[in-house]
Amino acid sequence: IAGITQAPTSQILAAGRRMTLRCTQDMRHNAMYWYRQDLGLGLRLIHYSNTAGTTGKGEVPDGYSVSRANTDDFPLTLASAVPSQTSVYFCASSDSAGAQADTQYFGPGTRLTVL
Amino acid sequence: GDSVTQMEGPVTLSEEAFLTINCTYTATGYPSLFWYVQYPGEGLQLLLKATKADDKGSNKGFEATYRKETTSFHLEKGSVQVSDSAVYFCALRKGAQKLVFGQGTRLTINP
């Protein structure tokens, strides 16, 4: 069982370019999440999806968009990248969006550098 | 709003030393509390959790007790190993709201 896969592993991107980070899970989880991890700030939620066909904004959604066309895939798009979006991006999933004690499972991350 | 505060790192210990990483939280009601660990080059994975006051979560020799009276969930291990070197995140979740993470504590264990 692969769990959660993310692609690419790392990417260097010129400012102003469009970029899509891919995330796929094989656990049939209902909920999926995108976080960014910056030094000294822990993880911050960008967008989430409670179930296929729905999405919501997290703590830092500006400059990012997501879609959830099916259960397994949850791509994150940067429409026009800026240097402040340089970060490590983690995709995560959980069985239920509403269960307080549910465990979230994380992918290996994508390291993105915007120049 | 809800928040989690962890002791600042980095923390450096010798092998077999006793470990405590402090975590306190601010939240109304009864959130669930979690410790996640991030090994070098990997994503986060759940280490342990507790869902109600006085619950003790444990895994891989690590323990943490949900203390409602002090709003704390300190992580402890009696004898650390080099393989425990990682970044540790305390987190809370209340109801259907999203996970709230602390800033992380980097732990390095020297042989």
Summarize the structure.
The complex is a heterodimer of chains A (115) and B (111). Chain A is mainly β and 115 residues long.
Percent helix of chain A: under 10%
Mean of residue pLDDT values of chain A:
93
How would you classify the helix and strand content of chain A by structural class?
A: mainly beta
> Would you identify the regions of chain A where 5 or more consecutive residues have pLDDT less than 50?
none
> What global shape of chain A is seen?
globular
Model description:
The complex is a heterodimer of chains A (115) and B (111). Chain A is mainly beta. Chain A has strands at residues 4-7, 10-13, 19-25, 31-38, 42-49, 56-57, 64-66, 76-78, 87-94, 105-106, 110-114. In chain A, the strands form two sheets. In chain A, strands 2, 4, 5, 6, 9, 10 and 11 form a seven-stranded mixed sheet that branches. Chain A has a four-stranded antiparallel sheet with strand order 1-3-8-7, with no helix packed on it. Chain A is globular and about 40 Å long. Chain B has strands spanning 3-6, 11-14, 19-21, 23-26, 32-38, 44-50, 56-59, 62-65, 75-77, 86-93, 100-101, 105-110. Chain B is mainly β. Chain B is 0% helix and 50% strand. Chain B starts with a strand and ends with a strand. Chain A binds chain B through residues 4, 33, 40-45, 48, 58, 90, 92, 97-98, 100-109, and chain B through 31-32, 34, 36, 41-46, 49, 51, 89, 93-96, 98-99, 101-104.
